[in-house]
Amino acid sequence: MKKAIVIGSGAAGATAARALQEKFAVTVLEAGQPFRPFNYSLSWLEGLRKSGLFFDEREIRWLFPAMQIRKTDEKMVLVNGIGTGGTTTIATGNALRMDRDLKKIGIDLDDEFKQISGEIPISTAHQKHWKKTTRQLFSICEELDLNPQPTPKMGNYEHCKHCGKCIFGCPQGVKWDSRQFLQDAVGRGAKLISGCPVEKIIIEKGRATGVRAGKGFKRKFYGADVIIVCAGGFGTPVILQNSGIDCKARLFVDPVLCVAAAWPGTYQNKEVAMPFVVQQDHFMISPYFDYLSFFFNKDWRKPARKLLSVMIKLADTTVGGITTDKIVKKLTDKDKEYLQQGVDRCTEILMKLGIKKQNLFLGTLNAGHPGGMFPLTAKEAETFHHDSLPENLYIADATLLPESLGNPPILTIIAMAKRVSHLIKKNMA
Ligand SMILES: Cc1cc2nc3c(=O)[nH]c(=O)nc-3n(C[C@H](O)[C@H](O)[C@H](O)COP(=O)(O)OP(=O)(O)OC[C@H]3O[C@@H](n4cnc5c(N)ncnc54)[C@H](O)[C@@H]3O)c2cc1C
Q1: In what order do the strands lie in the sheet with 198-204?
Q2: Shortest CA distance to 252 belongs to which of 145, 181, 198, 328?
Q3: Which residue puts its alpha carbon closest to atom 19 of ligand 1?
Q4: 9 CA to middle of ligand 1, Å?
Q5: N or C end: fewer C-beta atoms under 10 angstroms in the chain?
Q6: Residue 218's pLDDT is what?
């Protein structure tokens, strides 16, 4: 049987491994370790905030190795998951179909989305457990004609215990993450090697022959007949560039900024994250307890139970890049203008709830939806394969997205990875 190497086990990697196993002998090379949820008591850590020990968001990895944090020169905090399940383990479970820009270039993923709906439970079952403040915010958005929609979530949310720990790895196992696809692939014979970062793809005479991966003395060559790069929007461009393949300086990250206030009795920290969404041109709005700001932003030194926060998630301009040593990502003037529109909108919503404008404060600018550095164009609509890549080398993750979504990308990434896997089976199995 031919050998396939899948690099990464997040949304795209786990999907590809599951789809390709049995047609190929699949090996998944995953840089991080098996995922472990964050097990510390949040109220204990809340107490520790006063000690001044939490001064840099990058410290999170000491307590929670699955969360990787980097910063741009402009102090934007960039977040991604590292380990089995990739960033899906620290996601909030939102399931939105976001393929508008793919449709524009002639890509129809209807079949793939149909398959997903049969494989991942998706519902708004969390809605019946919303707390009073969330229900009030929802009504305010309706009154303002903002058309708020309960957020569809991946998982069995009728069993959600509203602990508010979605981004720390759901302690109840309610939230779906890509480890479920990964386990399925492994159960059918795929090999998973964790703690094995891929450094580069070896290309000889125009063909990818394998990858160089591993740490220190354990670094070695893994041969393959086909390679699927799914190391995420930050990881994939680095591997490609290390392998002599140029990427486009079109990095997007979907920046997030929260507008917050003290609002006694809100208990937003004990509720499902992002219970509803409001879609606007260039950004979306959603209630969100922002733990990064809560722990590391001095303006947020209030008890968690009293904090109320609404996020703006921006569809940023596709400009920027990442290499092994550096990330360059700046907000453009247009990005700043749209972000300000979002802040104004959130201010209006929170003031209607009864909060005074002078009591509002902002969170830390952060971002966790990277992609765009090897974008699909109309030319690749049929093949999902760029001419500049060796014939047996594919990309299947967020790196392929042509534009920022300003919205949760997991479902769309899974759909793309399914299509790529289908094409690989058709062309190469
Ligand atoms: C806090 C947070 C909440 C989010 N919530 C949602 C949500 O509710 N809904 C939604 O749709 N999206 C959400 N997202 C975004 C979503 O999780 C990611 O966009 C998505 O998981 C990206 O999928 P991917 O396959 O491209 O990459 P990832 O899921 O990031 O997977 C990449 C994998 O590659 C591995 N890797 C990296 N480099 C290497 C290497 N050199 N060698 C081997 N392996 C490597 C990584 O360890 C990782 O396992 C959230 C993101 C964050 C940060």
Answers
A1: 198-204, 207-213, 220-223
A2: 328
A3: 369
A4: 9
A5: N
A6: 87
Tell me the pLDDT tens digit for each residue of 102-147: 999 999 999 999 999 999 999 999 999 999 999 999 999 999 999 9
| Alpha carbons 308 and 268: distance in angstroms, whole number | 6
Pocket test for ligand 1, best of 60, 88, 178, 373 (most atoms within 8 A of CB): 88
> What pLDDT shows up at residue 245?
97
Q: pTM, whole model, 2 decimals?
A: 0.97
Cα–ligand 1 centroid distance for 102 (angstroms): 20
Query: 285: which residues sit within 8 A by CB, 6+ positions away?
Result: 141, 146, 277, 278, 310, 311, 312, 313, 342, 345, 346, 349
Ligand 1, closest atom to CA 410? 11
**Tens digits of residue pLDDT in 214-232:** 998 889 999 999 999 999 9
370 Cβ contact list (under 8 Å, min separation 6) = 78, 80, 232, 233, 234, 251, 252, 253, 322, 398
State which ligand 1 atom lies nearest to the alpha carbon of 367. 53
Residue 370: CB within 6 Å of ligand 1? Answer: no
Number of the ligand 1 atom closest to the C-alpha atom of 153: 8
Q: Is 153 in the pocket of ligand 1 (CB under 6 A)?
A: no
Amino acid at 429: A
Indicate which atom in ligand 1 lies nearest the CA of residue 85. 49
Q: How far is CA 118 from CA 15, 17, 19, 88, 314, in A?
A: 14, 18, 15, 19, 30
